[in-house]
Design goal:
With 294 residues, the chain is an alpha/beta fold. It is 49% helix and 11% strand. The chain has a 4-stranded mixed sheet. Strands 1-2 form a two-stranded antiparallel ribbon. Helix 7 packs antiparallel against helix 8. The structure holds fe (ii) ion (FE2).
Amino acid sequence: MFEEAQYFAPVETRDDGSVVVELAKSHPGFADAVYRERRNAIAALALNHTPGEPIPHVEYTAEEHHVWALVTGELAVKHRTYAVREFLDAAERLGLPRDRIPQLQEVSELLAPLTGFRYLPAAGLVPLREFYGVLADGLFHSTQYIRHHSVPFYTPEPDIIHEVIGHASTLASPRFAELYRLAGRAARRVETDEALEFVSKVFWFTLEFGVMREGAELKAYGAGILSSYGEIEEFRGMDIRPLDLAAMGTTQYDITKYQEVLFEAASLDHLEDVVGTFWDICDDDAIAGLVSVT
Ligand SMILES: [Fe+2]
């Protein structure tokens, strides 16, 4: 899930109990009353979910399954060229369906035996401290809706293709799953909002938009790149910088565009040494020290 408030359509519960997702006018589904009803109904399922209960079942339409099949099929082809080996192996072990949208409950049941991670349903934005904090417990908040069918290769928001193809495939790797857990522990450990933001930005530039050297080639391991049909073709041409905690934690980014600045790990070992170790031990003072040198 992307964490920024402006990226998610706000979800409102009205006085009569109805749930409304406020799509922006620029959203591809804005003028589609049927799609908007779907979004409202799916958001209501997550809002009414009781922790500990099975994840609500979404009855997806044939059109929605078709969008999933089309996009995930194309992404799978691109992954062979652009994804790190660790991601490809993990995605194969996970074995997500290609012809239909899986239920999040099903994703949890595929994932848990591999790395212990389970999914939680989210209607939209989850507060930063909660979203990151529960990663420490092996829990991942995920939306359940899918993008609008009129532009299947574009979404202004993190939809189930991003959450599952991008994140669940990564979470199926024990090494990446451990990094998510470490990010969660860091988020729970830090006290100030500034330090939490720093931790979340390091997450953004690694587990969302990270790239890694693999032999002679630059590959992606970030869920944001690996779930984006357009961005996956573009990342090699971006401003690629060396992995640097202070830079990642303080660099501003625009979530509405392709990420122009990316940080390259020399290897998965390197990512674990630099970012994993940081999340494992960082506290407010250490982060304040890193911010002060930038
Ligand atoms: Fe995400």
